[in-house]
Structure formats: structure tokens, C-alpha cells
Amino acid sequence: MKKKRVLIVVDDETVTRVLVRFLEGTDHYDVIAINDPTQAIEVAHEFRPNVIVLDIIMPTLDGGEVLAELRRDKKFSSMHAIFLTGLVSSEEIGRDGYEISGHPVIPKPVGANEFRTVVAEQLGIKQ
Fold first, then answer.
1. Is residue 104 within 8 Å of 122, Cβ to Cβ?
2. What is the mean pLDDT of residues 99-119?
3. CA-CA distance, 111 to 108, in Å (whole number)?
4. Which of 20, 56, 90, 126 could covalently link to 85 via disulfide, CB atoms 3.0 to 4.6 Å apart?
5. 70: domain range?
6. Interval 37-50: pLDDT, tens
């Protein structure tokens, strides 16, 4: 099976390292992680991710702005997106989950199983 490409854009280097580790333990993904949202557009054009993981609140550009900029290019029209946030807790989101414009939102801190599950669901990968 061809590996799916995952681009992680989170301004906190510690969170980025943890998220990468969550996915590296599988044979399903090629992962690139960056901490500067202003570089996300260029990196996405080079890497062509199947899914992009975006922190909602970041300096200079927030996750929604990065996604909106990418969506202007039809090459990214079918790319999946997952948002991360520290603004709400798991309890506030509840069992049914929460979405922004049809994209799942994961509260921080996120656990390995939850993160892997959401990424796999977005990409149609059976775990």
C-alpha cells in the first residue's frame, strides 16, 4: 500500500514532535511537520499532502487561514484537514465530536490512539 502523506502545522515544537511520533509507529504515513504557518503553503505545494493537521491558533496565520489559502488552488480541493485546539476540552466537545466546515477538531492535549484514529478515518485507512 502506498503511504499517505500527512503535513502537520503546529507552532509548538514539542506538540509537533509528539504528533509525528504518533504516526511514525505505523507503516501508513509519510509525515512532514513544520512550526511556521507562513511556510505551510510552500511546503504543501512541494509535499502534496493527503491530509493536513492544523493548529487553530498560531501566530501570523491561523489554521483556518492556511486552509483557506490552500483551497484557492484546486490541487488541494480533495485534501482532508484536521484542526487541533487548546480552546476546548474533550468534555466540551463530547462523544459526538466537533467539526469546523466539515473538518474534525481534536482538543489538545491529544492522545496517540485518538490522533491515529482521526487521521486514519480521514484517509479511509483501516486500523
1. yes
2. 86
3. 8
4. 56
5. 4-123
6. 999 999 999 999 99
Taking phi first (over 0 means left), then psi (-120 to 50 degrees means alpha), and beta for anything else, what does residue 94 get?
Answer: left
Tell me the backbone φ, ψ of residue 119, rounded to 5 degrees: -60, -50
User: What CATH number is given to the structural domain containing 101?
Assistant: 3.40.50.2300
**Of the candidates 25, 42, 44, 41, the residue with the CA atom closest to the CA atom of residue 120:** 25
Strand, helix or coil for residue 109: coil
Q: Per residue in 48-100, pLDDT tens?
A: 999 999 999 999 999 999 999 999 999 999 999 999 987 665 555 545 555 56
**Taking the CB of residue 127, how many other CB atoms lie within 10 A of it?**
10
pTM score above 0.85: yes
| Cis preceding linkage at 49, omega within 30 | no
* Residue 78 grid cell: 480533495
